[in-house]
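R.M. (postdoc): so does anyone remember the format we settled on? I'll just put the C-alpha cells first.
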C-alpha cells in the first residue's frame, strides 16, 4: 500500500497544475470573448461571474415548452437583450418556477409580424412634466398621476419597449390591454416627477434623450448625466437615443451631418450609462428611407416616430416597420385606454396533442 500512495502523492502537483492551467485558460478565453462586445445592458449588473460559469439553459420551442409546462401566459419578458435582434427571440414567461427560455420565431428585421398587426398597442408620447404649463403639450405632475390612475382603473398594463419589440417581431401576445409610455427630450421634470411616479405605480417607460442639453437650463431644466444614470439603472426605464442636437428635421441633413446625430449620440449615451442603446426616437418624428437606413445600420433595433397630423396617428401594429413605430399624443389617452388590445393568446392547447379538457369520470 505504501508505495502506491507515494506514487499518487507524486502526481498531485502535476494534476493540480493541470487544473489551474485549464481554469486560467477558460478565464482568459472568456475575457477575450468579452473584449469589444457591448451587447450587455441591464444584465451586466446582475452577476460578476464569467459567462462560462453561468448556467445556460437551452431554449424550448413553443411545442416543447407546452409539453413541459402546459401554459405560457401573456406577459412575456425578454430573457436577455442579446436575442432581441435574432431570428429566435428568447423570452421569460409568467409560468412560475420556470428556468428555461421560450424560443419564438421572429420575422426578419425591421419587419412586423402579421399576427402583431391584429393587436392594438398605443404608444403614448409625453414631453415636459412641470408644475406650471407653458405650452399645450406640457403636463403637470398632478395630471400625469391622474393619467396613471386612469390606466390602472381601466385595467391597462404599461409594457416595456423590449416587450413591444418582441411582440412586433414574433406576434406573441401582450397583456390584454397594453400601453407603452414614452417621454421625449430629457427634461428635468422626467427625473423629478415622472421617475418617482413610475416607481410608485411600477410602470415601465421610455425616455428619449438628446445629449446636447444634458444638465443645463434652457428656460426648462434638463436631466444631468448622474440623474439619467440613476434612471437607466432601474429596470423600469429604457433610454432611447434622440440625436445630439435635436435638429427639427433629420431628412434635411447631409450624410455627414447625420452621423453625429444618429451614431455619436448612441455612443455618448452608451459610454455614460454603461448599457447598450437599442432604440432611437426621431426628433419631431421626421424620417425618410435614408434616415431609417442609417438608424438601422447604426445598430438601433427599432425607432419611434410621430405624426404631425393627428389623423395619421395609429397603433404600433399599423407602423410600416420597426424603424418607424407610430405614436399618439398624450391628450388622446382617455380614448386609447378603451381601445388597447394585446392580441391573440399563445394557447398551449393549439401546440400539444393532449386533449384540452379531461373527460369527467362517471361516478
Ligand atoms: Zn424631441
Amino acid at each position: 500500500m505504501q508505495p502506491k500512495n507515494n506514487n499518487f502523492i507524486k502526481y498531485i502537483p502535476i494534476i493540480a497544475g493541470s487544473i489551474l492551467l485549464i481554469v486560467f485558460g477558460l478565464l482568459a478565453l472568456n475575457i477575450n470573448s468579452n473584449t469589444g462586445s457591448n451587447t450587455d445592458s441591464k444584465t451586466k449588473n446582475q452577476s460578476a461571474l464569467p459567462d462560462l460559469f453561468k448556467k445556460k439553459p437551452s431554449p424550448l420551442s413553443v411545442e416543447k415548452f407546452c409539453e413541459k409546462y402546459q401554459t405560457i401566459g401573456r406577459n412575456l419578458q425578454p430573457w436577455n437583450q442579446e436575442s432581441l435582434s435574432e431570428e429566435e427571440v428568447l423570452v421569460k414567461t409568467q409560468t412560475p418556477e420556470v428556468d428555461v427560455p421560450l424560443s419564438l420565431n421572429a420575422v426578419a428585421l425591421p419587419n412586423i409580424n402579421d399576427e402583431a398587426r391584429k393587436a392594438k398597442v398605443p404608444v403614448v408620447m409625453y414631453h415636459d412634466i412641470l408644475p406650471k404649463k407653458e405650452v399645450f403639450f406640457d403636463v403637470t405632475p398632478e395630471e400625469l398621476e391622474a393619467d396613471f390612475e386612469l390606466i390602472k382603473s381601466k385595467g391597462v398594463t404599461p409594457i416595456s419597449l423590449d416587450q413591444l419589440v418582441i411582440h412586433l417581431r414574433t406576434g406573441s401576445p401582450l397583456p390584454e390591454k397594453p400601453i407603452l409610455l414614452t417621454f421625449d427630450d430629457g427634461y428635468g421634470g422626467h427625473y423629478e416627477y415622472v421617475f418617482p411616479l413610475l416607481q410608485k405605480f411600477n410602470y415601465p417607460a421610455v425616455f428619449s434623450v438628446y445629449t446636447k442639453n444634458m444638465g443645463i437650463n434652457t428656460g426648462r431644466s434638463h436631466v444631468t448625466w448622474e440623474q439619467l444614470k440613476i434612471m437607466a439603472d432601474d429596470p423600469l426605464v429604457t433610454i432611447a437615443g434622440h440625436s445630439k442636437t435635436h435638429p427639427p428635421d433629420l431628412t434635411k441633413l447631409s450624410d455627414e451631418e447625420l452621423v453625429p446625430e444618429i451614431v455619436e449620440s448612441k455612443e455618448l449615451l452608451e459610454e455614460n450609462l454603461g448599457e447598450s442603446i437599442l432604440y432611437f426616437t426621431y426628433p419631431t418624428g421626421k424620417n425618410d428611407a435614408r434616415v431609417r437606413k442609417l438608424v438601422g445600420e447604426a445598430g438601433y433595433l427599432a425607432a419611434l416616430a410621430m405624426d404631425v397630423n393627428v389623423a395619421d396617428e395609429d397603433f404600433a401594429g399599423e407602423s410600416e416597420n420597426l424603424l418607424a413605430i407610430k405614436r399618439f399624443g398624450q391628450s388622446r389617452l382617455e380614448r386609447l385606454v378603451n381601445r388597447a388590445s394585446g392580441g391573440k393568446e399563445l394557447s398551449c392547447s393549439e401546440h400539444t396533442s393532449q386533449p384540452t379538457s379531461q373527460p369527467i369520470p362517471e361516478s
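R.M.: ...and that's the designed sequence above, right after the C-alpha cells. Also worth knowing: The chain has two domains: 59-105, 114-336. Residues 59-105 form one domain.
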